[in-house]
Amino acid sequence: MEQAIKITNDKSYSFKNVLLETGFEFDGTEVVKTKTALFCVEIEDGKIKAITPNDPNKAAIDAKGRLMLPAFKDMHAHLDKMLFGLPWQAVSSKRKTVKDFIAYEQKMIPEWLNTSIERTEKLIHFLQGYGTHYIRSHFNIDPTSGFDSLKHLEIALKNKEKTVGAELVAFPQHGVFYTDTAPLLKEVVKMNIDFIGGVDPYSIDGSIEKTMDLITQLAVDNNKGIDIHLHERGASGVKTIEYLINAATQNPTLQGKTFVSHAFALGHLTPAETESIAARLAAARVGIVSSVPFGNTIMPIPTLRKHGVEVLIGNDNIQDHWNTFGSGNMLQKAHLIAGLYGYSSELDLSRALGFATRYTLPLDDKGNQQWPKAGNDADLVFLDASCSAEAVARMSKVVSLVHKGNIVY
């Protein structure tokens, strides 16, 4: 999606003719409609200052009756390492295992780094075009990349700091011990990053405990979170998830900031096993980050949410050598979840929006208005939709994005 990015730095301004959700209309106990009304919304110093009754004659930016929703958050991306901005290239059938991909990256990373700053900015621009204002990005840390992937990513984010927020995960894509990355991890974890990651410790490094002991200790000692890529589907995948549950239980500082990305093993358990591990994940406050796979792996997102597990959603690949199907559209992810799990009612569709916004929703489950409120960060999107449910069902077009009060487009 192409959008003209134009930053407005005005510290104080207003919107008029803003469509906001105000409640639910019920038929008995069933939600049959979302109520809305037009308002004026005042912005000051990056915050929502006030929401007032609509005044169509007010000197303000005209939202033209478009629906205002919380801006979207992509909670799993690789801004530093992709083919976006290079000539089109589909995935090669020659690379079948993770170690095949590692060998390919070792060959190509030096070339990719030459243009990574410019292409990272283009990818951020692309994601913003779909209403994303905040990104959790992994960056390669390995003997081939050194610290260059991080340095280039930091430059790109600095160049875009007025229009996007981010949190960073040190990602040893090439294994912690398989390519002797441990010394680099011990250094990078002292830098201005938020999480330390890992990938398939059993199949790549040959040991769950050796890899996870190091990652966990580095996170605890340096007050970082953990976000592990785990593609393993069998017993080793379950054991790695259980390791993190136990680590978070034993180290309360890890609770609420420990995540398993992908966690495909959860999609291959019996219903009873799924219920059990979901309850344990919730008790330890260990979250799951998913790109919402389908095919022979359907993640048990409803069961995880039922138990209170924080499930974050991201696009993961946009265009790279791993996968070429990423759309960059977080609203599409919410739409996919609704379709996969049968969230077709007005209430369920409106709740599905939370997967795109990290659970910030205009209305609570009973229809009480909870967003926007004076004092909220001015992180907004305007869409051509009548309500959240329609936005999810129809993947409504995002026509404007505001980040911390800056009108991006």
UniProtKB/TrEMBL annotation:
<feature type="domain" description="Amidohydrolase 3">
    <location>
        <begin position="180"/>
        <end position="409"/>
    </location>
</feature>
<dbReference type="InterPro" id="IPR013108">
    <property type="entry name" value="Amidohydro_3"/>
</dbReference>
<dbReference type="InterPro" id="IPR052349">
    <property type="entry name" value="Metallo-hydrolase_Enzymes"/>
</dbReference>
<dbReference type="InterPro" id="IPR011059">
    <property type="entry name" value="Metal-dep_hydrolase_composite"/>
</dbReference>
<dbReference type="Pfam" id="PF07969">
    <property type="entry name" value="Amidohydro_3"/>
</dbReference>
<keyword id="KW-0378">Hydrolase</keyword>
<protein>
    <submittedName>
        <fullName>Cytosine/adenosine deaminase-related metal-dependent hydrolase</fullName>
    </submittedName>
</protein>
<dbReference type="GO" id="GO:0016814">
    <property type="term" value="F:hydrolase activity, acting on carbon-nitrogen (but not peptide) bonds, in cyclic amidines"/>
</dbReference>
<dbReference type="InterPro" id="IPR032466">
    <property type="entry name" value="Metal_Hydrolase"/>
</dbReference>
